């Protein structure tokens, strides 16, 4: 079994493994692994952190060989805008734009965080149904404080990737976080994915501090409107407390 979401073929080309397979079909990826891959590539530009990343999903991300490109859109001494894209056979399928804010000491005025989630030691393994028991879902360890992927409604879940992002490289806490935070819409889903589509068109992650450790917590909720549009949000945690928030717009349709 492969030990990572991706195998490196060159500096900017990566082969997706079976661990990336998402819930919508065997040929398309869950958005978590490619999000982490793009963030990894952005950090390779020499910036140690990001404060906000927005991903635009331009099409299904295939389980195939993919090419990453990166650039600094707006250089600066204090704030910089970075960008990355993921392509399949010359067609861009996912983009990311990230703000990097140069760090400074704000310990004296730090505060305003919401309460920390109950730790993983107080959670229980999340039950995984037979109809989706492999691929990405099996590549992550899932613990439920309350709710979960197959329990409709709000959820508090801890997750820890079992595999690296790229084979041969130890993932950073930031890569681990981006490997799983797209799942906020899944763990708090209000619909049965066997009967409904609830697919996010984007993902925006804001971080007020950089994460530490292996575990990523999501205090997530999903709201669905009457016209086929939903919104999934979450407060993201590590073992030291909250680190930021996520938001996803959802395309919601009943399966025919």
TrEMBL record:
Pfam families given in the database record: 4HBT_3 (PF13622), 4HBT_3C (PF20789)
Acyl-CoA thioesterase-like N-terminal HotDog domain span: 22-100
Q: Which InterPro entries match?
A: ACOT8-like_C (IPR049450), Acyl-CoA_hotdog (IPR042171), HotDog_dom_sf (IPR029069), TesB_ACOT8-like_N (IPR049449)
Q: Which residues form the Acyl-CoA thioesterase-like C-terminal domain?
A: 120-252
* Protein name from the UniProt record: Thioesterase family protein
Q: Which organism is it from?
A: Lentzea rhizosphaerae
């Amino acid at each position: 079994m492969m030990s990572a979401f991706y195998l490196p073929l060159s500096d900017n080309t990566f082969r997706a493994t079976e661990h990336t397979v998402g819930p919508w079909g065997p040929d398309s990826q869950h958005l978590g692994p490619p999000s982490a891959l793009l963030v990894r590539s952005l950090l390779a530009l020499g910036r140690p952190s990001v404060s906000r990343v927005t991903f635009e999903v331009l099409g299904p991300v295939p389980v195939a060989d993919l090419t990453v490109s990166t650039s600094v859109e707006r250089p600066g001494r204090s704030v910089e805008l970075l960008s990355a894209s993921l392509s399949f056979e010359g067609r861009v399928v996912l983009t990311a734009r990230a703000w990097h804010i140069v760090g400074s000491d704000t310990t004296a005025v730090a505060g305003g965080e919401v309460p920390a989630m109950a730790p993983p030691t107080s959670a229980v393994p999340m039950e995984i149904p037979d109809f989706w028991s492999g691929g990405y879902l099996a590549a992550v360890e899932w613990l439920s404080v309350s709710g979960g992927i197959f329990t409709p409604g709000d959820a508090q879940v801890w997750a820890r990737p079992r595999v690296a992002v790229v084979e041969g490289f130890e993932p950073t806490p930031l890569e681990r976080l981006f490997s799983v935070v797209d799942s906020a819409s899944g763990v708090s889903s209000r619909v049965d994915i066997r009967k409904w589509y609830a697919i996010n068109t984007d993902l925006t992650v804001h971080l007020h501090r950089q994460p530490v450790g292996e575990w990523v917590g999501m205090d997530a909720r999903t709201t669905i409107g009457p016209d086929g549009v939903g919104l999934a949000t979450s407060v993201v945690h590590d073992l030291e407390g909250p680190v930021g928030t996520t938001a996803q717009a959802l395309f919601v349709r009943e399966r025919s």
